[in-house]
Amino acid sequence: MLKAMVLGLAVTVLGADPWVVYQGQGSGKPGSGKKVVLVSGDEEYRSEEALPQLGRILAKHHGFNCVVLFAIDPKTGEINPNVNNNIPGLENLADADLMIIATRFRNLPPEQMAHIDGYLKKGKPVIGLRTATHAFNMDGKHPYARYGNGYPGNGAEKAWAEGGFGRMVLGEKWINHHGNHGSEATRGRMAPGAGDHPILTGVKDGTVFGPTDVYGVRLPLPGDSQPLLLGEVVAGMKPDDPAVAGKKNQPMMPVAWTKTYMAPGGDAKGRVFTTTMGSSTDLVNEPFRRLLVNAAYWATGNESKITPDACVDIVGTFKPTKFAFNGYTKGVKPADLAGWE
């Protein structure tokens, strides 16, 4: 093992393994002893930047042991989100306490999908960000086709009709861009009756903001879904821009909610928090970071330890890249992201 000392804190890089581990700092914190696996892999919204930062926040400030996985080009060992069939390290889910996923249309081989399937069958908690509503896309011959976006369902798996992983685990699959992509941002408004939910502790109405647009969802959301934030479509890309005029905000689409799921063949229900926000640039917003940290506490059964002033500060230098296809930083390997900077 190579020990990298940055800002006086230890971060472990596991040899040549194509992922990075941020060891939880301090003892007695709510996340101490709990393992979070953060799965990146989308072509547009820079999950390969967002999830290392979120992992650092959860590890340094809250004590979680965080393992961040990436889409890896097997020829170079570099992070390449355009490689949609390879996310090494999913075996880390075997003993994980939480999976945070931000993938898009991945066509992973059966041996990798088996780890996700095994995790979900245990009813373990899931946090889904942005494109995780359409996390996977496999053809009907794939042994884990049922997790693909829009899976039609059949026979004993009819419960997975019309949505696969997105709809039946997270609560919605890919529908559309409700706000204009790249020109109408998102402001989070409290959903009716949601203000007392622990995930919203310390989060004030109208303070969550992100330049990503609002995704469309079908109303009502399925099962026991509980909307927490509604997405006010903003007439511009700045936090102080007004709401867009017209019918787009009548009604507003949910952009953050909770629910439970049970995977086919599973033996337990699991907690889920989903937000259709979550680009790397959204993490610049402090209330949005607080929402995610609170969600990690809630998902792992630590909601009683959520406080309105818990630290959600950025760790190190964070200059996220604007979302765009083919906009990722080339030549980066997971080991380059080790450390708190």
Radius of gyration: 19 Å
CATH class group: Alpha Beta
For this structure, the CATH topology is: Rossmann fold
State the helix count.
4
Distance between the termini: 19 Å
CATH architectural arrangement = 3-Layer(aba) Sandwich
User: Beta fraction of the residues?
Assistant: 15-25%
What's the order of the H and E elements? Answer: EEEEHEEHEHEEEEEH
From the spread of the alpha carbons, the general shape counts as globular
Low-pLDDT regions: 1-15
Count of individual domains: 1
Number of strands: 12
Strand order of the largest sheet: 3-5-4-6-7-12-11-10-8-9
Summary keywords:
341 residues; alpha/beta; Rossmann fold; 10-stranded mixed β-sheet; two-stranded antiparallel ribbon; disordered N terminus
Describe what you observe in this structure.
Helices cover 14% and strands 19% of the residues. It is α/β, with parallel strands linked by helices and 341 residues long. The chain has a single domain, classed as 3-Layer(aba) Sandwich (Rossmann fold), CATH 3.40.50. The strands form 2 sheets. A 10-stranded mixed sheet has the order 3-5-4-6-7-12-11-10-8-9. A two-stranded antiparallel sheet has the order 1-2. The longest helix has 16 residues, at 47-62. The chain is globular. The protein starts with a strand and ends in a 42-residue tail after the last helix.
